[in-house]
Amino acid sequence: xxxxxxxxxxxxxxxxxxxxxxxxxxxxxxxxxxxxxxxxxxxxxxxxxxxxxxxxxxxxxxxxxxxxxxxxxxxxxxxxxxxxxxxxxxxxxxxxxxxxxxxxxxxxxxxxxxxxxxxxxxxxxxxxxxxxxxxxxxxxxxxxxxxxxxxxxxxxxxxxxxxxxxxxxxxxxxxxxxxxxxxxxxxxxxxxxxxxxxxxxxxxxxxxxxxxxxxxxxxxxxxxxxxxxxxxxxxxxxxxxxxxxxxxxxxxxxxxxxxxxxxxxxxxxxxxxxxxxxxxxxxxxxxxxxxxxxxxxxxxxxxxxxxxxxxxxxxxxxxxxxxxxxxxxxxxxxxxxxxxxxxxxxxxxxxxxxxxxxxxxxxxxxxxxxxxxxxxxxxxxxxxxxxxxxxxxxxxxx
Length: 398
Ligand SMILES: Nc1ncnc2c1ncn2[C@@H]1O[C@H](COP(=O)(O)OP(=O)(O)O)[C@@H](O)[C@H]1O
Ligand SMILES: O=C(OP(=O)(O)O)[C@H](O)COP(=O)(O)O
Known about the structure:
Blueprint: E1 17-21, E2 28-29, E3 32-33, H1 37-51, E4 55-59, H2 76-86, E5 91-93, H3 98-106, E6 113-116, H4 123-127, H5 130-137, E7 142-145, H6 156-164, E8 167-169, H7 171-184, E9 191-195, H8 200-210, E10 216-219, H9 221-230, H10 245-258, E11 261-263, E12 267-271, E13 280-284, E14 293-297, H11 299-311, E15 314-318, H12 331-345, E16 350-354, H13 356-364, E17 373-375, H14 379-386, H15 391-394
Parallel strand pairs: 1-4, 1-7, 4-6, 5-6, 7-8, 9-10, 9-15, 10-11, 15-16, 16-17
Antiparallel strand pairs: 2-3, 12-13, 12-14
Helix pairs in contact: 1-2, 5-6, 8-10, 8-14, 9-10, 11-12
Bound molecules: adenosine-5'-diphosphate and 1,3-bisphosphoglyceric acid (X15).
C-alpha cells in the first residue's frame, strides 16, 4: 500500500468534478512549445479520469506572473497543445476562480476536460491563501495532484486544496516518487551532481544540503556565473545574481567541510547578443569582456565535466550548462548529455536528470531515452534528493 491515496482508491467517478493539478510550465521559444514531455507525462491521469466519466478540470501555472494577469503567460495557447497531445477536446476558461470558471465547469458533461487559466494570475496562489484555495475548491469534488515538479511549492493549488477536498496522487506523481527512490534511494558512489540553468535564486539554497549528499558538484549555466563572481571574477554582463555572493561563498565552505568537490568552469563561450548566430568567442573565465555574456561553458570546462561524469557511478543533473536553445551555446550541454548517455548504455552509470528545460535539452541532444530516469521535475527533484519534505507530497499522505 502506498503512503498516499492514488487513483486506485477512487471508485465511482461518474459525473464527479475532479480538480487535477498538472505542471504545464513547458519550454516555449518564439511563442511555440518546444518540448511536450510534461504534458505527455500527465496524459495518463487525465485520460484515465475522463475515461471513467469524471469532469476533469486542470489547474496549472505558467511562468512567474507574480499575481498579475500577464497576457504572455496565459495558458490559453497551451490548451491547444494539451488537446493535440491528449487527442481529446480541451475547453478553456479565462479564469481559475469566480464566474468564468464556475460557468465553464457548469457547462461540462461527463468525460469533458477543461483547462483553467494560470493559477498564478492571483496573488493568493503563491501565498497559499485559504480564501483563494476555497475559491478553487468550489469547482471540485475531488483533488488529484499530478504535478510532482511543482510539489516543492506550498501553493494553494499544490497544497492548500488538499486540505479542502479528498486528495489523491495522480499516476505521474506516483511514478516519479517510485522511480526516484529506485534510482537514487541508495546511490552508488561517487555521486556527481550537475546543476546549471537560470533559476539561480530559487535553486542556490538547495546546494547547501546537496553538497553534503554528493561527492562532486559541477556548476554550470547562470548558476556558475554567480559562483565565479563570488570568487571575485568579473563576469561582465553574464546572467549573475551578485547579491547571492555570500550564499555562494557559504556553499563553497560547506562543500569543503563535507569533502564535496565544487567544479566551476575554467573557460566560457561569450557573446554580446543573446541570439542565434551571434558573434562569439571562447575565453578563460578570468578574461570575460566587460560588455559580454558567458552563454556556455567552454571546451576545457567540457573536458573537466566529462571527466567527472566518467568518474561517477551516479549522476544527478538539473539545469543546462548553457543557453542550449541558441546554437552554438548548446555545445557543453549536448556533449555532457551524450557522454552520460553513453556511460549509462555501457552499464557504467546510473543517470537521473530532471527539469522542464533539462528534459528539453536532453531531447535536443537526442538522449532522453538513454538516461536511467528522466524526471519532469527540476527544483522538486533536487529538494527530494536533499531529503526535504515536499509540501505537495506530504499533504497527500494518509
Ligand atoms: N549561461 C547562461 N546564461 C543565460 N541563460 C542560461 C545560461 N545557461 C543556461 N541558461 C538557461 O537556463 C534555462 C533553464 O534553467 P532552469 O529553468 O533553471 O532549468 P530547468 O527548467 O531544467 O529546471 C534555459 O532556458 C537556458 O537557456
Ligand atoms: O518548471 C518548474 O520547475 P523547474 O524549473 O525546477 O523544473 C516548475 O513548474 C516550478 O516552477 P517555479 O520554479 O516557477 O515554481
